[in-house]
Amino acid sequence: MLETPVDGIPAGVLSLFIIDTINILGSYLIFVGLGRGPMVEHERRLVGRRWIGVPLYWMMTSAAAWRAVIDLRSKPFFWNKTPLQPTGKRT
């Protein structure tokens, strides 16, 4: 049931891990760089440390996309829209 731990990580696994890490960090840095590039200094100060939330944003976008794929398969003709309340009287 319990196996003895391996002394080293196989080269293939280690190289795949390094490639994945570089890919994720590089994508994040490119995204932030493209976003900050056209900003003026005032806008950069307003954004501040909110760039740290970009990975969370990507995870939420991915979860929403997978949910949409599942809904498309299980409920293809259902329109999942935001419920809106009337804002005032129509004249």
Notes on the structure:
There is one protein chain. The chain is mostly helical and 91 residues long. The protein has a domain at 12-74. Helix content is 59%, strand content 0%. The longest helix is centred in the first third of the chain and has 26 residues, at 11-36. It is flat.
Question: How are the elements arranged and paired?
Answer:
Layout: H1 11-36, H2 41-47, H3 54-74
Nearest-angstrom radius of gyration? 22 Å
Q: Give average pLDDT, whole number.
A: 88
Question: Helix tally?
Answer: 3
Main beta sheet: strand number and arrangement? none
Low-confidence stretches: none
Q: What order do the helices and strands follow?
A: HHH
Q: Compute the separation of the termini in Å.
A: 75 Å
**Form type:** flat
Number of strands: 0
Keywords: Membrane, Plasmid, Transmembrane, Transmembrane helix
Transmembrane segments: 12-31, 51-70
Q: Any descriptors?
A:
single chain, 91 residues, mainly alpha, 3 helices, 59% helix, flat
Please outline what is shown here:
Keywords: Membrane, Plasmid, Transmembrane, Transmembrane helix. The chain is an all-alpha fold. It has three helices and no strands.
